[in-house]
Amino acid sequence: MDKLCHDNRSLAKLIRKEKSARMRLKLLAIVHFQDGKSRYQIAEFLKVSRTSVNRWVSNYLSKGLEGLKEKPHSGRPMILTEKQVEQVKLFIDNSVKNSKSGKVKGYTVQTYIEESFGVKYEISSIYKMIERL
After folding, report:
1. Are residues 91 and 121 in the same domain?
2. CB 61 within 8 A of CB 4
């Protein structure tokens, strides 16, 4: 089947099988587009922005179903280098060993990072880092 030869029946089957709610929404937008609805009508009906509908339809028309797939998101890069992260890990390990409770406090790690590397992390990010390390 050519990438743009998906009829509404085959798209409806894909919608039913699809686990991702976002992808189901994109496929539904394409079904409405093929039914002759305007991008404005589709956006209003699906309660999404017209910009999103425009992007989905354009991606579908140029790349087929492949154009609707989510691209991987890299996220924000770490502020600390790998070597610095290793130092923080050692600090945490030593703090846990020397602690009566066997735990390390977030503000202790936060202070260590700020004094050692000049980098200020929010306390919530510190606890995520402790959990990750």
Report:
1. yes
2. yes
Q: How far apart are CA 68 and CA 70, in angstroms?
A: 7
Range of the domain at 89: 82-132
Q: Do 63 and 87 belong to one domain?
A: no
Identify which of 30, 38, 29 has the alpha carbon closest to the alpha carbon of residue 64: 30
Tokens of 28: 């539904």
- For the full predicted model, state whether its pTM sits above 0.70: no
Over residues 50-62, the pLDDT tens digits come to 999 999 999 999 9
Spatial neighbors of 42 by CB under 8 A, at least 6 apart, are 29, 32, 33, 53
pLDDT digits (tens, 9 = 90+) for 31-40: 999 999 999 9
Is the model's pLDDT at 73 over the cut of 80? no
Number of separate domains in the chain: 2
